[in-house]
Sequence to fold (466 residues):
Amino acid sequence: MADQILQVEHLEKYYQKRHVLYDINFSVAKGEVVTLLGPSGSGKSTLIRCLNGLEPYQKGTITFEDQQVDPTEKNWQQIRQKIGMVFQSYDLFPNLTVIDNIMLGPTKVQKQSADAARAEAIQLLQRVGLEDYADAYPRMLSGGQKQRIAIVRALALHPDFMLFDEVTASLDPEMVRGVLNIIKDLAETDNMTMIVVTHEMNFAQEIADRVLFLENGKILEQTPSKQFFAKPQTDRAQEFLDSMDF
Amino acid sequence: MTSWGIIQQSLPMFEKGFVLTLWLSFIGIIGSILVGLICSLLQYFKVPIFHQIATVYVEISRNTPLLIQLFFLYYAFPVIGIKFSAQLCGIIGLIFLGGSYMAEGFTGGFNGVSKGQLESGKAIGLSRWQLARYVVFPQGFSLSVPAMAANVIFLIKETSIFTVIAIPELTNTALDLIGMYYRSNEYLFVLVVAYAIILIPLSAILTLLEKRVRYGSFGN
Fold:
């Protein structure tokens, strides 16, 4: 299908002998927002990390923009420019100022001119309301601010596709909303394709087009979001939703 | 003669030893940092063959005493036709020893950069070299400053062993004077004061430096 941006087929992942992902199959269409839900340890983070080559996988294929990925480090390095990823722990570079964090990828990886990269970085900072912090170091920022900068850092490379790995899990409750609003805005305004791993059920419900429900390394169901939150197909997913407080 | 008189009389000789200790330490430390840097980079990038050589060197150097290394340079090498002056032996020995300590310090710093930092660097498409250049090295160096500071102090103190190959640095000066005039209390007192004059201010400066570069370790 032409409008599929990502296809995962028969993906299997082992940590040494431990089998952690079983026969994962799904695809993501351009502009679609997919959330990965499931209990802790179900393999959500491992799966999302496989999608930009941070975790090796042992079997199966990942096809990104109609090109099957030959999973060497060098190939992944090229592909990662097109796949933005934001982590739970923000991981801004503490040795660089906010603006340098954002400009590093565009100037070094994509060889944009410093002026162009700076202009765009400022624009993106304005979008998340942090333009006054351009010259601050990450240690001077709050968790929520750092996470917004981390999102900007990923966006500066003009990715076709974003991965969010529990990006609000280590934030104070009052910081969560600001970060989620940015993600939501990306989905709505930019029509960004994204996969979101989250424990924020309200947010998942608001943003997702489709839910993949994982347990013990298997995709138990893939259901349109509305239907999933109204009545999931599996009892296990129903149990999971009942256990979540939202 | 009074103790004070003895001390005063010896000061010009101690002054020469003092200058020599400082000079040899300086060359030795600069050399050690260079050798350490080269070895840790070879190990970090896993340069074929060279990184194994670096590892072997580090192990030999760290696991043999400087005293024996100096004997080797000074007494054994001439047997196979390689002869250095005593001072050159001292400098080579100190660099041979210090290089491995510095290498371990830098390697420790590089390894101390968190996995999350490496992954977020990879996630924005940095190559292995760019990741090293913009993420690992700047943070790794600041993480390795405490180890480097400890090594600097350690290497300066190690120069006292140079006395066994008769380099007239501080310790050698004191032992010589004691041998000639049998006034151990006075000369040893001057010796201790001389080392303290070098090391205490240096140690304070290094502590200050450690504080200034600590940003690398609490970014997130």
Observations:
- Chain A touches chain B at residues 52-54, 73, 76-78, 80-81, 83-85, 87, 89-96, 104-105, 108-110, 137-139, 146, 150, 153-154, 157 (CB under 8 Å).
- The first strand of chain A starts at residue 4 and ends at 15.
- The radius of gyration of chain A is 18 Å.
